[in-house]
């Protein structure tokens, strides 16, 4: 899969409704994964909250969204990040190294419980970036 760049929006508990609204408005296929769906115990009150969702449209639009994780503050207007994702590990690690240089790493780029390598950082200009390296399907 080629690497892609797209917006990632954070919500304060209404991610499912918002992503369904965007699907209705833009069309496409919506995949939704809850905190409770990943096999480990979800934080209290989060089993049905959205950990990750992705809308892909026939026009080539990709929009991702999730409910804020426990303990994080929802700030309307600043509730988005730029997502880089794909399965080209070398390319994506190179982007990560450059984007995180001089910035702040909030989630180190490492293997996560859903099986992919993921990291999150804020670059030196205050922009939040999420990098997800998918395991290649064989």
Automatic annotation (TrEMBL):
This is VOC family protein. It holds the Pfam family Glyoxalase. It comes from the Bacteria. Residues 5-131 form the Glyoxalase/fosfomycin resistance/dioxygenase domain.
């Amino acid at each position: 899969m080629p690497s892609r760049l797209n917006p990632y929006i954070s919500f304060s508990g209404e991610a499912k409704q918002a992503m369904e609204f965007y699907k209705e408005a833009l069309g496409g296929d919506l995949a939704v994964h809850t905190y409770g769906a990943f096999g480990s115990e979800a934080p209290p009150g989060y089993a049905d909250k959205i950990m990750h969702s992705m809308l892909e449209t026939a026009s080539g639009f990709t929009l991702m969204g999730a409910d804020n994780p426990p303990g994080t503050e929802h700030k309307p207007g600043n509730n988005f990040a730029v997502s880089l994702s794909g399965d080209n590990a070398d390319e994506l690690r190179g982007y990560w190294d450059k984007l995180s240089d001089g910035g702040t790493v909030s989630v180190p780029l490492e293997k996560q419980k859903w099986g992919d390598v993921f990291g999150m950082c804020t670059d030196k200009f205050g922009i939040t970036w999420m990098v997800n390296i998918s395991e290649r399907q064989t």
